[in-house]
Amino acid sequence: MPSHWRAIITQYAFSLICSLSVSLSDYSDFRTQQLQFRGDMPVARPETSDVRVIAHVDMDCFYVQVEQRKQPELRGLPTAVVQYNEWQGGGLIAVSYEARKCGVKRSMRGDEAKAACPEIQLVQVPVARGKADLNLYRSAGSEVVSILAQSGKCERASIDEVYLDLTDAAESMLADAPPESLELIDEEVLKSHILGMSRKDGDDFKESVRDWICRKDADRRDKLLSCGIIIVAELRKQVLKETEFTCSAGIAHNKMLAKLASGMNKPAQQTVVPYSAVQELLSSLPVKKMKQLGGKLGTSLQTDLGVDTVGDLLQFSETKLQEHYGINTGTWLWNIARGISGEEVQGRLLPKSHGSGKTFPGPRALKSLSTVQHWLNQLSEELSERLSSDLELNKRIASTLTLHASAFKSRDSDSHKKFPSKSCPLRYGVTKIQEDAFNLFQAALREYMGPFGSKPGNKQETWRITGLSVSASKIVDIPSGTSSIMRYFQSQSTAPSRSADGCVQDHVEMTPSATEGCSVQRSTEAQAIIHEEDTGVTYTLPNFENPDKDIDLVSKEDVVSCPSSEVTVIPTQLESNRSTQTKRTGRKINNQNEKNRGMPSIVDIFKNYNATPLSKQETQEDSTVSSTSRRANFSSSSHSNKVNQEVEERRETDWGYKIDEIDQSVFDELPAEIQRELRSFLHPNKRLNTSKSKGDGSTSSIAHYFPPLNR
Ligand code: TTP
């Protein structure tokens, strides 16, 4: 085999074994993959000794602004965006500031809002597949991100929120054109709210701001913050000019403080937290308002330690807090009481995960497996569409599928029992996602109902589903050089079709066979789901999250957070059933029907590969070029390049880590020369997973997926 082909194949094998391992190894690597449980307890991260300048930018009444841009005649009028739902005029999800002045709140339904403000304009969220379609808002959010990302390291935190690390930009400004040297300070800068700024009676507000910003005797931290104020004001103006959207911002020395500040003066304003104002800010801040203290941890602080405000934590030593909450969380609490947070702005412009959800409140609660399946199919379709577009546009793939639901029982002896969340390896293709989502649901339902809950004939206990969502997480970039995988996916038909070997059953069995065909992982931390009806948004509320703003944060992110580390794989009989079953069907994957249903075989990928043969070195150079041009697309600024370089580095780490998860038995069945090539990719210090072959008498399917090229 020519060396350039080997190099190409090696790259494919490398990426496919890591990412598409569901089809290649019949889930075997997932069986050996033990993901670590990470609870939702906050963890202290060391704060750098260098002064940082961080901004949190939050769009004002975002969905309303998007709708007003579409219909300019609505500008200036009290307006609200309502969900797709006829009941009582639909629930409000975004309310303009004009409507807020009339007493309209997000918690209201359309009819209530009209009663409070008869002139209110209600705009319905766009609808697709019988549920809210948020694409319009997502792409509007992306427009904003692309502007903000030019200024420094940028982290998209939700559909309408962004963190920026402006340290480099502020330092450059301080070196080249410090505020005190500026003759003209923009009006937008002068409108900034600077916490703790002293102002003598009668002093003009803007003059006081100017004095604060231009103080010659200010310390370096405040000088950098002043530069941040000027930069953010300029960015907000640019966002307004280019997108017609207003936004508010918080500017501080860390993410935590910047986020707290951004909501303090809305709309279209910015708030600054100098070091000197931190204690005062925190002393009056109710613990529950602090990110990560909205849930059980905050409640425990209130009830067990009598802490009402974040500042109250100052009375406890670090050791005392560690005794109560463990070393990490204890230190984190000690730190936040002092406004210390080492959390860094991640250079991430794309969402961490994708989710699609819907609620079924009151009489619309789902009560049969067939209706659940119907809705899961819709949600899975939307999810699949977004995964395909992420793959196509961003060359990213997700590897974990998670099902969340909220439910209640008709005769509930255990009313607080949450419907468990379930995850499994994600298989691309609409039908696969639909099948897996439904299987996850059935597994979760069995657990929720308990051993006697839904025995056939047991009419006493029935269930109702009030919310459903599916999400895809553990998203990673495809390593460069795998362009034909993209081509393969593009050539795939995504038309859903009923699976011949599907595991869908329209009843709940209390035996494991109900989920045959699914490898089920149990989410160790059940996540509460709070949905807005029909918004298509799933609001996950991990324990200890702030139920107010943090729900927003997660929900707006379109993200159902399911980091791998929160999921524990529990190898079950079901998984080996799955392995066996998939092995049986593995050989068929080459036929057209199978192809249309989801995961490609590696053979098909090779068939579609038309690249001009290159030497191994050339291949690598080519990869570099492609990743460079991808970087160039993000931003031309050198800072951005640095950001993306970090992303590239992280990507390599991601894949390096995954290599360790390759099942030895899968590896053994690769052709010897490919094995050699693959080995050369492996980190010398890391070894392959040495778990034994499955021992069920069957051979792994990899050989069938991986015939010689000249076949
Ligand atoms: P938020 O930023 O929480 O609110 P907002 O932008 O509407 O208003 P504010 O000026 O106070 O920040 O949410 C951003 C968008 O997310 C919001 O416009 C609509 C959507 N959203 C929901 O769909 N459901 C919700 O429960 C929340 C909180 C937001």
Automatic annotation (TrEMBL):
Any one GO molecular-function label of the UniProt entry: DNA-directed DNA polymerase activity
EC number(s) reported in the record: 2.7.7.7
Residue stretches of biased makeup (Low complexity): 626-640, 690-701
InterPro entries assigned: DNA/RNA_pol_sf, DNA_pol_Y-fam_lit_finger_sf, DNA_pol_Y-fam_little_finger, DNA_polymerase_eta, Rev_trsase/Diguanyl_cyclase, UmuC
Region called Disordered, residue ranges: 576-651, 685-711
Signal sequence, renumbered to the chain: 1-23
Cofactor(s) it depends on: Mg(2+); Mn(2+)
Domain UmuC: start-end pairs: 54-294
The organism's place on the tree of life at top rank: Eukaryota
Cellular component GO terms, alphabetical: nucleus; replication fork; site of double-strand break
Coiled-coil residues: none
Polar residues bias: start-end ranges: 576-593, 609-625
Class of enzymatic activity (EC top level): transferase
UniProt keyword Nucleus present: yes
Catalytic activity: DNA(n) + a 2'-deoxyribonucleoside 5'-triphosphate = DNA(n+1) + diphosphate
Residue spans crossing the bilayer: none
Keywords: DNA damage, DNA repair, Magnesium, Metal-binding, Nucleotidyltransferase, Nucleus, Signal, Transferase
Family as reported in the entry's similarity comment: Belongs to the DNA polymerase type-Y family.
Protein name: DNA polymerase eta
